[in-house]
Write a structure and sequence with these properties.
It is a single chain. By secondary structure, the chain is α/β, with parallel strands linked by helices. Helix content is about 40%, strand content about 20%. It contains 16 helices and 13 strands. Helix 1 packs across helix 3 and helix 12 crosses helix 14. It starts with a strand and ends with a helix. Bound molecules: adenosine-5'-diphosphate. Adenosine-5'-diphosphate (ADP) binds next to helix 11 and helix 13.
Length: about 400
C-alpha cells in the first residue's frame, strides 16, 4: 500500500481534487481531477500524473445529484480504481478562518460548529467547503480531515493593514480586512524561497490573476498587505466580480434603483468584472479573441486596475524588489503581464519581450531594477503539504 493524501476544493458547482503519494521529499502528484457542472450536468474527469485519463464520466440523472451524492460516487470510484493507495488524510480548502484560525486544523465537531458561524462572511464558498467535509465524515468517519484556510496566510498583518475606518465595535465584531488566496500565496512564498532566496527575503508583490484575482505584498515571505478585504469581492477587477468600488454605488443601487440586497450580490459577484464591462465573456482568452471594442476596454481596465493596486501595495512595502505572476492569466497571458509591467516602469521594471512571450520563469531584462517572475501556483499541493503537517504528528505518519 502506498500512503497518500487527498486535497479537495469544493465550490458551488465544482469539486477539484488531487491525490498525492507520500514521497521522501514531500507529496508526489499521483492524480488530479474535477467534478464540474454540479446541479446541472455533472461531469467528472481525472487524470494520472502522466496525463492519462483515468475517468471521464457523465451521469444520466445528473441534475438531481447533490454534492454529497457525487462525492459518494467519487469515493466509490477511488476505492475501486486506486486500491493500492491508503489515504492518511483529506485536506480541504476552507475559504474563511475568521479571526481565530491562523493555521490548518484537524476537523472535529467543535471546529465545524465554529466554521459554520463564518458562513455569512463567505456565503458563496464556505457552506460548500463545509458540506464536503460533512459528507466525507459520513462516508469515512475515521478518516482524518484537515481544514486549510485561505485567510490564514494574511492573519499576522498589522492592525492597520486589517482595519476599515469604521467604528471600533464593528472591527471587534470581525468586520475587517481578512484577505484571501492564502494557499496560493503560501505556495508561492515557499517556492520562491527555494528558487530565489534573495528575492524571497525582499519586498515582493505576488499577482494571483485567475477568475478570482488579488495581489499580495510580501516582505520576507510574509503577507504585509493584500487587495482582498472582508470578502473576496474587494481589490482587483476579476472574471465576474467588480473589485474595489465606491460603497456609495451600493447604497445608490438599493435606495435609488430599488435593487434588493440579493440582486446587488448577484450583480457584484456574477455579472461584473470582465464579463460586465465587455458584455462578451468572463474568460480572458475569449476577450483576446473577440473583435468587440468593449472586450478590449475590459482587458485594458483589468491591467490598469492591477497596476494601480500594485502601486498602493508598493507603498505598503516601502518599495519593491520583485513581482511574481501566477494563476491562469498570470501564468499564461503575456499581453496582460506586459501591460501591467509597462504601467509599473516607474519602479525601474523593464520587461523582456521574448521571455515574456514564452512564459519564461524570469520575464524582466537583466538591466531591470526589479525582477519579474512567473511561478505556476499549486494550491492542491499546498493543501497536501499543510494537511500532512497536521496529521503526521497526530497519526504518527513518518513519511
Ligand atoms: P480560477 O480562479 O477559477 O482557479 P484560473 O487560475 O484557472 O481561475 O484562471 C482562469 C483565467 O485564466 C481565465 O480568464 C482564462 O481565460 C485565463 N487563462 C487560462 N489560460 C490562459 C492563456 N493561455 N492565455 C490567457 N489567459 C488564460
Amino acid at each position: 500500500m502506498t500512503r497518500a493524501v487527498v486535497s479537495l476544493n469544493a465550490g458551488s458547482s465544482s469539486i477539484k481534487f488531487a491525490l498525492f503519494t507520500l514521497g521522501p521529499d514531500g507529496p508526489e502528484h499521483a492524480a488530479a481531477g474535477k467534478l464540474e457542472g454540479i446541479g446541472i450536468a455533472p461531469h467528472l474527469v481525472a487524470r494520472g500524473a502522466d496525463g492519462t485519463v483515468l475517468i471521464d464520466q457523465d451521469w444520466d440523472n445528473g441534475a438531481r445529484l447533490t454534492h454529497e451524492a457525487l462525492l459518494r460516487e467519487l469515493f466509490g470510484w477511488a476505492s475501486q480504481h486506486l486500491p493500492e493507495h491508503e489515504i492518511v488524510a483529506i485536506g480541504h480548502r476552507v475559504v474563511h478562518g475568521g479571526m481565530s484560525f491562523a493555521r490548518p486544523l484537524l476537523v472535529d465537531d467543535a471546529l465545524l460548529e465554529a466554521l459554520d458561524l463564518l458562513c455569512p462572511l463567505a456565503p458563496l464558498h464556505q457552506p460548500h467547503n463545509l458540506a464536503a467535509i460533512r459528507a466525507i465524515r459520513t462516508l469515512a468517519p475515521a478518516l482524518p480531515q484537515v481544514a486549510c484556510f485561505d485567510t490564514a496566510f494574511h492573519h499576522d498583518r498589522t492592525d492597520v493593514a486589517m482595519r476599515f475606518a469604521l467604528p471600533r465595535a464593528l472591527h471587534d465584531k470581525g468586520i475587517r480586512r481578512y484577505g484571501f488566496h492564502g494557499l496560493s500565496y503560501d505556495y508561492i512564498a515557499r517556492t520562491l524561497r527555494e528558487t530565489d532566496p534573495e528575492l524571497a527575503r525582499g519586498r515582493v508583490i505576488v499577482a494571483h490573476l485567475g477568475n478570482g484575482a488579488s495581489l499580495c505584498a510580501m516582505h520576507d515571505g510574509k503577507s504585509v498587505d493584500t487587495t482582498m478585504g472582508f470578502t473576496a469581492l474587494d481589490g482587483l477587477m476579476m472574471g465576474t466580480r467588480c473589485g474595489d468600488i465606491d460603497p456609495g454605488v451600493l447604497l445608490h443601487l438599493q435606495m435609488q434603483e430599488g435593487m434588493s440586497a440579493a440582486n446587488v450580490e448577484t450583480l457584484l459577484y456574477k455579472q461584473s468584472g470582465l464579463l460586465g464591462v465587455s458584455g462578451v465573456s468572463s474568460d480572458m482568452r475569449a476577450l483576446h479573441q473577440s473583435p468587440d471594442p468593449h472586450a478590449a476596454e475590459a482587458i485594458d481596465l483589468f491591467a490598469w486596475r492591477a497596476a494601480r493596486e500594485a502601486g498602493a501595495l508598493i507603498s505598503s512595502l516601502g518599495g519593491i524588489d520583485g513581482i511574481i505572476f501566477t494563476a491562469g492569466i498570470g501564468e499564461n497571458d503575456p499581453i496582460i503581464r506586459a501591460s501591467i509591467c509597462e504601467r509599473l516602469a516607474w519602479t525601474g521594471l523593464i520587461i523582456d519581450g521574448e521571455s515574456n512571450a514564452r512564459n519564461a520563469p524570469i520575464i524582466s531584462r537583466s538591466d531591470s531594477r526589479i525582477i519579474a517572475r512567473v511561478i505556476p501556483t499549486d494550491e492542491e499541493r499546498m493543501i497536501a503539504v499543510l494537511s500532512l503537517g497536521v496529521v503526521r504528528p497526530a497519526a504518527g505518519v513518518s513519511q
